[in-house]
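User: Run a structure prediction on this.
Assistant: Running it now.
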Amino acid sequence: MKKILAIGANGIIGQAVIELLDDTYTVIPVGYSKGERRVDIEDNDSIKAMYESVGAVDAIISMAGNGMMANFDDASDQAYQVALNNKVMGQVNVARLGINYLTPGGSITLTSGQASNAPTQRTAAIAMGVAAINAFVTTASLELKSNHRINAVSPSFVKETMERMGMDSTNGISAADVALCYQSALEGVANGKIFDAVTT
């Protein structure tokens, strides 16, 4: 049975992905602040320790990566640093370090988002981060060896998240539907693809 490392397991999307894959694969959940295994993706030593504790895996799925909504004219430096340090470099380093623990033919799936595809107010910093992840994935895919693959899932606003924030979730996508995109990235043959998880 394939061994899947699922980073960001405690989030809404993470829980849905684990529920979908758990019957078929050996899924190893990793959280940030709770759970048996934890990682701080802004800390390379923490990432390395996670991989050392888990060993070789057949797939790495990162559903981590934070962002802050803020108005352009009063956004703090922190809003941009979170996007750069966590959303972008956190996931980039998950991939860069993780490739050494990936079995031949294995895959890495990162998470971007729709903020740069469908611009909305208060998301400039987030859009910058998700566009960077998409660019990294499509370009890094050209250089992978050992039949490794790298892709990204790009979800729009998730219904369950919108409801928690007191927003109208009519146009949101369910976490279960987003999880199907991670499954497609895991089980397919795509490399360098951005899987858009959006409502139709």
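Helices lie at 12-21, 44-54, 77-98, 124-140, 159-164, 175-187.
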